[in-house]
Design goal:
The complex is a heterodimer of chains A (446) and B (398). With 446 residues, chain A is of the alpha/beta class. Among the domains of chain A are: 1-11 and 111-327, Ubiquitin-like (UB roll); 366-445, no CATH class. Chain A has ten helices and 20 strands. Chain A has helices spanning 113-122, 161-164, 169-180, 217-224, 238-250, 280-284, 389-397, 401-406, 418-423, 430-445; strands at 2-4, 23-25, 30-33, 43-45, 52-53, 58-62, 69-71, 76-83, 89-96, 130-132, 146-150, 187-191, 203-209, 233-237, 256-262, 270-275, 295-299, 306-308, 320-325, 332-333. Classes of the chains: A alpha/beta (446), B mainly alpha (398). The interface between A and B is large, with 76 and 60 residues. Strand 20 of chain A pairs antiparallel with strand 1 of chain B.
């Protein structure tokens, strides 16, 4: 199957990793797991500060489905459990041990779907998947009508996923076969045409072309078989599939990952082999121009990533760190009247239209005041799904559940609105609005 | 320097400062001078440079050819009717002096209300009136008394925009409502023979206008409505299609020159600020209905004698198509809706113009009527998307 997305936008940002750049390996001194990165998962702790844990050992489990675990990606000692308001767990920090130990393993029995699911939950890979509706960790009680796997990341400056799963063909094959047994429908794998990876017969290969957000599994799903009311689909990337496969083959998943250190303020953009949840300080040390004052460090890409402090940690599901200017110390005189070609914009009201292939080094300013929705039809230009974004956003803002359903809220995730948020001249926080809408709906319909 | 001064006086306007009552005004000026350096706190970390200030300034820029030509034409018509000679610069200066107080008064009244409301609501000042304030003098006859402009502006800004929640929430186009208010409240001053040509000298420029027997200062459409089919200018010379295209005819200040309107349209379309779907379909609708009227000529309705092309050139049709119908807040918002909305604006404008001899021009009423119907059109278009989803959902569940 071939799908060509016409609507979307590839933002051109400086600081991409050059092709063939050498890779370094960094073993983090400590890692952190942030339960908020797994929406729908309510964390209950299984460890306390001072405990020693091995790779694959349970750190926390879900309050409702107690089999769903988040496991430690390293062997080491639990240093800290940081809690916020009402004792909510903000993050669990584990110091990495110098010596390696045998990882914890789960018993794997692939003879039935139920056994496979239990192994995935206990082995810590279940939380890496997402379901729609609601864009949350899948509920083990529902059977997905289809599963969508994306084999590439189209976000600005994103690393190549194919590099990360090189040599993991057996794992991917095992993972895809297992997933195929968990759905009543099909497993679709979205790839770029250049990716000639051999796929097992159980899954359908879908060649995707077009600009970002073509690499989002949810966007691919909307073009292949959109989720209907009452249905559930799962979405994930190819690395998650490899982790599932590794778990099912060996009883333990792998937790190392590639991280692209990118962005306008990175001296040498590079890819680092490390472990998920790694300490960011170590990954960017010595590789950022100037000091970190007035810099923004993002765990993830510039569209959907999290702003973190320099002592922060790599957040799931990102394999990317972007460093750019915060811009809060910039005084731009009458920027709205600018005739400069340095202004990054999709609008031809700026002279940057003269240089369509130029890359920019933007900062984090909103570049305007928040307004009500004035312009119409702008969101549609970057929204490849069969969704009318303006009306869905308005339905969410007015809390009208019937209208949200009718306008397709079950099909969307906040990340699908990232580009709309970028181009919005009214500077509305669209991803936040969509997240709140999904959470509201889930609460009301529970 | 300026930045330092602003930083120095800023504390006065913050809560507890002695000028706190003017916080919105201060913020308005500050964000006008310096792009706000507030940074993204959730979601996307980068934002497009386009903001509502940029959008509004592009529309103002697109109006400049109409404004400048309108000034010249105001002088040109006065000199023509007064029977005196004058250079291009003298005519322009006359028009400039005639229009300047109108623009100032509209801005002062409109922005004053905006500032007060913004401060009252503790919001930022919104830019919408930057465009409205220049549109209102452009769509009113030059002889409209300045106090009427002030009343109409105040009425329109308060009752059409602010009571609905401000820029972005209004149902009707603010500038057009101001004109409609004048049209219905003061019909004598807003139409007829004398409204469209400045009649008095200003600061020694121009002359006093006296009309010869048998001619009047009525607009071409006004002449048609009274049954005249030989269109003339204010001194009785026949008007050609070229005159109408260039704009050397009596009419509201900004609407006469189709050429200048098209220059503005080119800017709006190139920058993508106005919707080409709306603009194109207004002209398509006007041509279609103009053709129907032309092919079925009727002595009862002299407007039907105009060719479809002339229908687009005369009166406020082109101005309404380019600057009024495309107002994103009051127009249809869905893609398909824009075609329907635009086409109906064009059709209704010509219907009113030709078949209702009480109103020589229909563009204003057509846009206002379609403003009211735009949500209905959008409702239907959105419903198609909803129905498609429902159908898919039903077949999917089986």
């Amino acid at each position: 199957m071939n799908i060509n997305f016409r609507r979307g936008l590839d933002l051109k940002i400086t600081g991409g990793v050059a092709e063939g750049a050498p890779m370094t390996t960094i073993t983090p001194r400590s890692i952190a797991i942030v339960p908020d990165d797994f929406p729908g998962f309510t964390a209950k702790l299984d460890v306390k500060p001072g405990d020693t844990v091995t790779t694959g050992q349970t750190l926390m489990h879900d309050k409702i489905f107690t089999d769903i675990n988040i496991v430690s990606p390293v062997t080491g000692t639990v240093r800290d459990v940081v809690r916020g308001e009402r004792r909510k767990i903000l993050r669990v920090v584990v110091d990495t041990a110098e010596t390696s130990a045998e990882p914890s393993k789960v018993n794997v029995d692939t003879t039935s779907a139920e056994y496979i699911k239990r192994a995935m939950m206990q082995g810590g890979v279940w939380v890496l998947m997402r379901q729609r509706p609601y864009d949350i960790v899948p509920s083990p009680e529902t059977v997905p009508v289809n599963i969508f796997v994306t084999a590439f990341d189209s976000a600005p400056l994103a690393p190549m996923l194919s590099a990360e799963v090189t040599g993991k063909d057996a794992e991917i094959c095992a993972g895809l076969k297992a997933l195929a047994s968990l759905t009543t429908g099909k497993v679709y794998v979205g790839v770029r045409a250049s990716n000639q990876r051999a796929l097992p017969a159980e899954v359908e290969r879908v060649e995707i072309s077009g600009p970002h957000p073509a690499g989002n599994a949810g966007v691919q799903a909307s073009a292949i078989a959109p989720v209907n009311k009452g249905e559930t689909i799962w979405t994930m990337d190819i690395v998650t599939v490899a982790r599932i496969g590794a778990l099912l083959l060996t009883g333990t998943a792998f937790w190392n990952t590639h991280v692209a250190v990118t962005g306008p303020d990175v001296i040498t953009p590079t890819v680092i082999k490390t472990i998920i949840g790694a300490d960011i300080d170590q990954l960017i040390a010595g590789n950022v121009t100037d000091t970190l004052r007035h810099k923004r460090i993002i765990s993830g890409n510039i569209l959907t990533g999290h702003k973190v402090s320099e002592d922060g940690y790599l957040r799931y599901p990102y394999r990317q760190i972007t460093v750019m200017d915060e811009g809060d110390d910039t005084d731009e005189f009458m920027g709205w009247a600018s005739l400069s070609s340095e202004k990054m914009s999709t609008s031809r009201s700026f002279f940057s239209w003269l240089t369509p292939n130029k890359s920019y080094a933007p900062d984090a300013r909103l570049l305007g005041g928040k307004r009500s929705m004035i312009m119409s039809g702008l969101y549609d230009k970057v929204m490849p799904m069969d969704i009318i974004p303006e009306y869905l956003i308005k339905a969410i803002l007015s809390g009208d559940i019937d209208r949200m359903e009718a306008l397709g809220i079950y099909e969307v995730a906040p990340e699908d609105f990232a580009l709309c948020e970028y181009i919005d001249p009214s500077k509305l926080e669209l991803q936040k609005i969509v997240r709140q809408g999904l959470d509201y709906l889930r609460k009301e319909l529970a | 320097m300026l930045r330092k001064y602003l930083n120095k006086i800023k504390p006065n306007f913050e809560p507890g400062g002695k000028l706190h009552a003017f916080q919105s005004v201060f913020e308005g000026f500050e964000s006008f001078l310096y792009t706000p350096n507030s940074t993204s706190q959730s979601g996307t970390h980068v934002h497009d440079s386009l903001d509502s200030k940029r959008i509004m300034i592009i529309v103002v820029a697109a109006l400049m050819p109409c404004l400048i030509f309108g000034m010249f034409n105001t002088g040109y018509q006065n000199y023509l009717c007064a029977g005196i000679e004058g250079s291009v610069w003298e005519k322009f200066a006359y028009g400039f002096l005639a229009l300047l107080p109108r623009i100032i008064v509209t801005y002062v009244v409109g922005l004053g209300i905006e500032f007060i409301v913004a401060q009252w609501r503790k919001e930022e000042i919104q830019e919408g009136f930057l465009v409205t304030g220049i549109l209102i003098p452009l769509i009113c006859p030059i002889e409209t008394p300045v106090w009427m402009l002030a009343v109409a502006t105040a009425f329109s800004v308060i009752f059409v925009k602010e009571v609905f929640g401000g820029t972005g929430y209004n149902i009707f186009n603010v500038a057009l409502t101001a004109r409609a208010f004048l049209f219905f409240a003061y019909p004598a001053q807003m139409s007829g023979d004398k409204a469209f040509i400045a009649s008095e000298p200003i600061c020694g420029l121009g002359g006093t206008v006296t009309y010869a027997d048998g001619v009047s200062g009525a607009t071409p459409l006004g002449q048609l409505a009274t049954g005249t089919t030989e269109l003339t200018n204010a001194v009785g010379e026949p008007i050609s299609t070229l005159d109408a295209f260039l704009g050397l005819i009596p009419g509201s200040v900004g609407e006469t020159s189709t050429l200048c309107i098209l220059i503005g349209a080119a800017l709006l379309l190139f920058t993508g600020i106005a919707s080409w779907k709306i603009m194109l379909s207004v002209f398509a609708g006007g041509l279609a209905m103009g053709s129907v009227a032309y092919l079925l000529p009727s002595a009862t309705y002299p407007g039907s004698s105009l060719t479809p092309w002339d229908q687009l050139l005369y009166g406020g049709f082109a101005f309404a198509a380019v600057f009024m119908a495309t107002d994103p807040v009051t127009a249809a918002r869905t893609g398909a809706g824009k075609y329907i909305y635009g086409f109906l604006v064009g059709v209704i404008a010509i219907i009113i113009r030709v078949y209702n001899t009480g109103y020589p021009e229909g563009a204003m009423l057509a846009v206002l009527l379609m403003n009211a119907l735009a949500p209905l059109i959008d409702y239907c278009v959105v419903q198609v998307n909803i129905n498609r989803r429902m159908r898919r959902s039903r077949t999917g569940a089986q």
